[in-house]
Amino acid sequence: MPELDAGSNLILIIDDSVDTIRLLSSMLKDQGKILFATNGETGIRLAQMQQPTLILLDVEMAGMNGYEVCAALKTDPTTQDCAVIIVTANTGMEHEIAALEAGAVDFITKPFNPPVVRARVQTHLRLQQHTAMMRQLANRDGLTGLYNRRYLDEVLSLEFERHRRQQLPLALAIIDVDHFKAYNDHYGHPQGDVCLQSVATAISTVARRPGERVARYGGEEFAVILPHTDAAGAERYGRWLCQLVRDLQIPHQSSATAPTVTISVGLAAVVPPVEGSAQQLIAAADQALYLAKTAGRNRAIVNNWP
Ligand SMILES: Nc1nc2c(ncn2[C@@H]2O[C@H](COP(=O)(O)OP(=O)(O)OP(=O)(O)O)[C@@H](O)[C@H]2O)c(=O)[nH]1
């Protein structure tokens, strides 16, 4: 079996007993970096910020119980990929089923049998590492290393649902390199690839907040999901992106817009309504992109929700 790369593992223990946290930490200290929270709400916030590899989650806690915490983690796109092992003193089939139904991958009972705890945790850490590697390959665009369109569509649907539940604004930016056919014709396709890579890197440097995801959406098109962003924030973001690409100063002698490479950005923002869909958000951002192109390119335009 391949060696476990413990250095990259982050294990979050959510348990209201400090003694249990101490005990589990001492059993697992050589399997990864340990974080802990003493209630469900703090545990969820920590998981959203740190995205641990594995979460050991106590069932019986004041406030949210472990099953509720697990269900919340599994419906949040920022934490849904963390493996959750439920920890409980309750033995019996119905508890095991409840844990698996809430989205947990395994179940550990108290009192702990240290070799069993270590073996189970190690197995799931190893599985997580393999899954992460496969996911990385399946979700990425080969040329730029950004997420691909399939992944972005998937995440956008989940984010749309999450923002609808929370009644928070969600924005989407669609970015298109201006006169890119002319760029290829003038500088050649391989140089065109280099240009796309530079633009991709520039765009990804501005996506740093949790949940922001950047994808290559088509040939010379990119998209960014902007959680918790309203129309005013989206417009600022779009203008910032345009400036960032202008600042790259990539020569583009055959552009009718500017002597350097520029982008047009279409944005749409909405607090998702009950009857709305992620597809409508894409259509609204696409429409804004069309407006940005026809208004002269090298600019960002925000569309109103249809
Ligand atoms: N080098 C390179 N070019 C690509 C790639 N994918 C798509 N393209 C090119 O991107 C160009 C897109 O051209 P158009 O859709 O006509 O758009 P445009 O020339 O940018 O014009 P506007 O968008 O209206 O400013 C085409 O020439 C494609 O061949 C790629 O991976 N590498």
Automatic annotation (TrEMBL):
<dbReference type="Pfam" id="PF00990">
    <property type="entry name" value="GGDEF"/>
</dbReference>
<dbReference type="Pfam" id="PF00072">
    <property type="entry name" value="Response_reg"/>
</dbReference>
<keyword id="KW-0548">Nucleotidyltransferase</keyword>
<keyword id="KW-0808">Transferase</keyword>
<feature type="domain" description="Response regulatory">
    <location>
        <begin position="10"/>
        <end position="125"/>
    </location>
</feature>
<dbReference type="InterPro" id="IPR043128">
    <property type="entry name" value="Rev_trsase/Diguanyl_cyclase"/>
</dbReference>
<keyword id="KW-0597">Phosphoprotein</keyword>
<dbReference type="InterPro" id="IPR001789">
    <property type="entry name" value="Sig_transdc_resp-reg_receiver"/>
</dbReference>
<dbReference type="InterPro" id="IPR050469">
    <property type="entry name" value="Diguanylate_Cyclase"/>
</dbReference>
<dbReference type="InterPro" id="IPR011006">
    <property type="entry name" value="CheY-like_superfamily"/>
</dbReference>
<feature type="modified residue" description="4-aspartylphosphate">
    <location>
        <position position="58"/>
    </location>
</feature>
<dbReference type="InterPro" id="IPR000160">
    <property type="entry name" value="GGDEF_dom"/>
</dbReference>
<dbReference type="GO" id="GO:0052621">
    <property type="term" value="F:diguanylate cyclase activity"/>
</dbReference>
<feature type="domain" description="GGDEF">
    <location>
        <begin position="168"/>
        <end position="305"/>
    </location>
</feature>
<dbReference type="InterPro" id="IPR029787">
    <property type="entry name" value="Nucleotide_cyclase"/>
</dbReference>
<protein>
    <recommendedName>
        <fullName>diguanylate cyclase</fullName>
        <ecNumber>2.7.7.65</ecNumber>
    </recommendedName>
</protein>
